[in-house]
Every structure is written in structure tokens, then in C-alpha cells.
């Protein structure tokens, strides 16, 4: 398996793969988010190369969805319900997800509110095999994207300019 760093994302390419599936995992809990990312990256869940991103901020997640258009979003929104004004970011998040398959994971004692559209609502206590079957059967409907040939630059234009000035001074 070959890895490519893309900003803060890691693209796991299977040998000879040219296409990949992008999955966004959203959860306030660091351990759940990284555990889900690791499980997706290190099992043959979808029989293709994966680009798994994890986020703990709904506003950034909404922007990520609008810009990158992931093939699947897996989210536990329970941690965001305790925010001062939870409705605004949650409504914006669901508006961004309207064309993207969304799997909601329920971790709290609050029942799911059907006012929001999702493809599936699963308990966080769902076995990985059940989640594996759900993902395999239903959710990857978008065409696969081409694997990028080069990574996104990690330096801003100003940082590049400063690094060039430093190199010239050393010469």
C-alpha cells in the first residue's frame, strides 16, 4: 500500500490504483474519529483506495463537503448539540450534505430527529461488520475520483517567498 500526504490527509493507494473514494468522518470525540479513520484505512472495507479525513468542527466540515465533495460522510452530531446555538451549524451541515450519502452515528440518549435527511442512522454500538455491510451495499454511489498526481502545497505564498529569501541568503 502506498501513502501520499495531501495537506493533513493521507491517501492510501492500493498497488496500481488510480481512483480513490473520499470519506469524511465527523465527531467531537478524538478517539472515535481516529478509530473510525484507522478502521477504514486498514481494512478492505470498500475494495478501493481511500482518502479518509476526520474533523471535529461542523463549520469546517461543511466547507470541506462543499469544496471536496466526499463520496460518503459518517458523522456523530451528538457532541455538537451542547453548543450555545447548535441549530445554525447543524442546519448548514445538512444543507451541504444533501447530495452526499450521510451515515449518522447515534451516541447519546436523544432519539434521531427525522427532520434531517440521512441515508442511515446507526448506533455507535453497531458492530464493525454491520457497518462494513452497510457501507459496501449502499453508500458509494458517486463516480470515483482520479488520484491526484501532486500534493497540495503546504506553504502559503508568503511562506514560500520567505523560504526563497532564506535560501538566497545562504548561497
TrEMBL record:
Residues 149-171 are annotated as: Disordered. This is LuxR family transcriptional regulator. The gene is ecnR.
Amino acid at each position: 500500500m502506498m501513502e501520499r500526504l495531501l495537506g493533513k490527509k493521507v491517501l492510501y493507494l492500493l498497488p496500481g490504483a488510480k481512483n480513490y473514494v473520499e470519506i469524511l468522518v465527523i465527531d467531537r470525540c478524538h478517539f472515535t474519529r481516529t478509530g473510525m479513520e484507522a478502521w477504514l484505512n486498514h481494512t478492505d472495507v470498500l475494495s478501493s483506495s481511500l482518502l479518509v479525513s476526520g474533523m471535529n468542527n461542523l463549520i469546517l466540515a461543511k466547507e470541506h463537503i462543499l469544496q471536496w465533495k466526499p463520496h460518503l460522510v459518517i458523522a456523530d452530531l451528538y457532541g455538537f448539540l451542547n453548543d450555545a446555538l447548535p441549530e445554525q451549524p447543524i442546519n448548514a451541515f445538512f444543507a451541504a450534505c444533501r447530495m452526499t450519502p450521510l451515515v449518522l452515528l447515534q451516541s447519546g440518549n436523544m432519539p434521531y430527529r427525522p427532520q434531517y435527511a440521512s441515508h442511515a442512522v446507526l448506533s455507535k454500538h453497531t458492530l464493525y461488520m454491520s457497518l462494513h455491510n452497510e457501507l459496501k451495499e449502499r453508500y458509494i454511489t458517486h463516480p470515483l475520483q482520479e488520484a491526484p498526481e501532486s500534493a497540495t502545497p503546504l506553504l502559503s505564498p508568503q511562506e514560500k517567498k520567505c523560504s526563497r529569501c532564506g535560501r538566497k541568503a545562504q548561497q
